Amino acid sequence: MTDKKTLRAGLIGLGMMGRHHARNLQSLEGVELVAVADAHGDPHGAAPGLEVLPDVDALIATGIDYAVVAVPTQFHRDVAITLAEAGVHTLVEKPLAFDIGEAEEITAAYEQAGLVGAVGYIERYNPALQEMRKRIADGQLGEIYQIVTRRQGGFPARIADVGVVKDLATHDLDLTAWVAQSPYASVAATSTRRSGRRDEDMVSIAGRLQDETITNHLVNWLTPFKERITVVTGEKGALVADTLNADLTFHSNADAATNLWESMASFRGVSEGDSIRYALQRQEPLATEHQAFRDAIGGDSSNIVTMREGLHTVRTVEAVLESAREGRVVTLD
């Protein structure tokens, strides 16, 4: 690739997540990481050879084509809006914002400016979920009936200023709407605090998508083993993704009507058919995320998490917290 086509990338935020973004940007074909910024310096030595700039304005002044924002969520709005006003395509770490108003403001700024804006929901880029999405789009399951996720384990070592809903369940809400290609219509949640922390550490969410798919999510920090499972059940069988191991298995429904006339193909039931475990290419999800964003700037936005999707996830997260707090089903507009 010639220098003329090389995209100039900037990164703001060199903390726990920012250092991984720096590593991926430095090895991304067609991209050069030309500038980094962090008011606290570069504690992990993630960007050797680059001056650590003080703020987003200094980053923009270097003449970047796009930016990755990995600052704490409370600063997302100000940094993202400043980048939008400067005409810079931007990938913002998840969540887009904690506040719905700020998320709407960011989304509108990028859409009105005609810029590529995306949110860094890394779980979407797990090889098992990428393959699952492709197979569902190709019709392997037929009509989708139900999506179930389980994201369970011990309390993470990193300091969390939020509960499991905003920290972990947000991944499941994003990937479920994406896998089904349908946003949430309603949620009913129950949460609890069992470990003495201020925020919830365990939640159960029942939901319904706009296309009538029913969903269920179990998320907690109180399980003495790690589990990351997504099960999508449809008329022709079920796909089970284990994102810890990047495994995908298909369980076919032997009774699924595949060769009957339309009029006779009414659904009767299920019986256990063959199971197939797929061998997948196990690329680092963050590398796939960066490739997808680079490609979006080049015109192919088919594999990014758009800011509008990120906004819907923020709204769904708030609906889950409201449902758990008030003990009722919450409908999303």
UniProtKB/TrEMBL annotation:
Domain (Gfo/Idh/MocA-like oxidoreductase N-terminal) ranges: 8-121
Database matches in SUPFAM superfamilies: Glyceraldehyde-3-phosphate dehydrogenase-like, C-terminal domain, NAD(P)-binding Rossmann-fold domains
InterPro entries: Gfo/Idh/MocA-like_OxRdtase_C (IPR004104), Gfo/Idh/MocA-like_OxRdtase_N (IPR000683), Gfo/Idh/MocA_Oxidoreductases (IPR051450), NAD(P)-bd_dom_sf (IPR036291)
Pfam families: GFO_IDH_MocA, GFO_IDH_MocA_C
Molecular function as annotated in GO: nucleotide binding
Residue ranges of domain Gfo/Idh/MocA-like oxidoreductase C-terminal in the record: 133-332
Sections of the chain in a coiled coil: none
PANTHER family, sorted: BILIVERDIN REDUCTASE A (PTHR43377:SF1)
UniProt similarity note: Belongs to the Gfo/Idh/MocA family.
Protein's name in the database: Dehydrogenase
Lineage of the organism: Bacteria, Bacillati, Actinomycetota, Actinomycetes, Micrococcales
